[in-house]
Amino acid sequence: MLQVRVHGPGDVRLDDVAPPEPGPADAVVKVAACGICGSDLSYIRLGGLAGPGPEPLCLGHEMAGVVSWVGDDVRTVAVGDRVVVEPGNDEVGRIGGGGPQGGLTPELLVRHADAGLLHPVPDGLPLDVAAFAEPLAVGMHAVEQADVREGEGVAVFGCGPVGLASVAALVDRGHERVVAVEPSATRRSLALGLGAQAAVDPTTDDVWAALADLHGTAPFMFGPTPATGAFIEASGSARVLVDVLDHGRVGGRMSVVALHYDPVPTSYLMLLMKQFTVRGSMEYPERFADAVDLLARRDLSALITDRVPLEHFDDALATLSTSKECGKVMVTVDPALG
What we know:
Helices cover 28% and strands 25% of the residues. The protein is α/β, with parallel strands linked by helices. The protein folds into 2 domains: 2-132 and 300-337, Quinone Oxidoreductase, Chain A, domain 1, CATH 3.90.180.10; 136-280, NAD(P)-binding Rossmann-like Domain (Rossmann fold, 3-Layer(aba) Sandwich), CATH 3.40.50.720. Strand 19 (304-309), helix 10 (313-322) and strand 20 form a beta-alpha-beta unit. The longest helix is centred in the middle third of the chain and has 14 residues, at 133-146. The protein is elongated. The model has no long low-confidence stretch (mean pLDDT 94).
């Protein structure tokens, strides 16, 4: 069967590998769809993980499908169940992020099937949309880490899939003053479609003047700042980290969910004077299935802008690598599964 694997820096291949060999505590999932993530691009660029990891490295950690086999000891799932596969953790093993399995394949081996990694998908939710649960969970946790308070303004910098997921989570929680900051016209339009208050183009607009107009101002000893209370950094731009500290309000909060591999100069004077809080955001809410519940509650299918068959994985990779005018790029492995 096919499996997308990274063999070295810039060397990603669609390999022919042996089918799974499950044990009595395991399950096998026929994959319907699997998304490609920005971290996958990093794995390809680095040739694997930043540190020691499996060689070659299997890709794919945003997947949904149908259970096709369960071991004799499995009690929580059954053959025929429609599921989202949580990518795991260091305790039970990871899928697609350094583990021996990856979701960009027709048949995915899930070890320890009763460990809570297989989440049921409601019948009315298409499996390719259900596969968006993983990036949605990442965006939901970024919102949690930003500690957004009732009635205050919030700015989401970068509206790739995780930034858009953050916008969706904020709107779902009743926050009405959400501003998307994104150079891509397509992504700004998607953010507005989710219910964002406004979408600002940082290449043509004065972001901080726009936030002051939309959210009002707050006092600071060196002059007023926008009153925006919380920021989500999903762009990966070092400049955004610097600007938020320079222009953010006293008592503001920033959740950093984008990958920043290089050190970024930081004004700890501004951090101190503004009593500003900066938090990293890694992975998911305490209950991963909250993302599945949100997908069942709100139609987020418009965020999947590109669907590419597994056999043409290179085309999906090219879209994600070269164009910002897209939302989620989804690889369809077996669309017949629904």
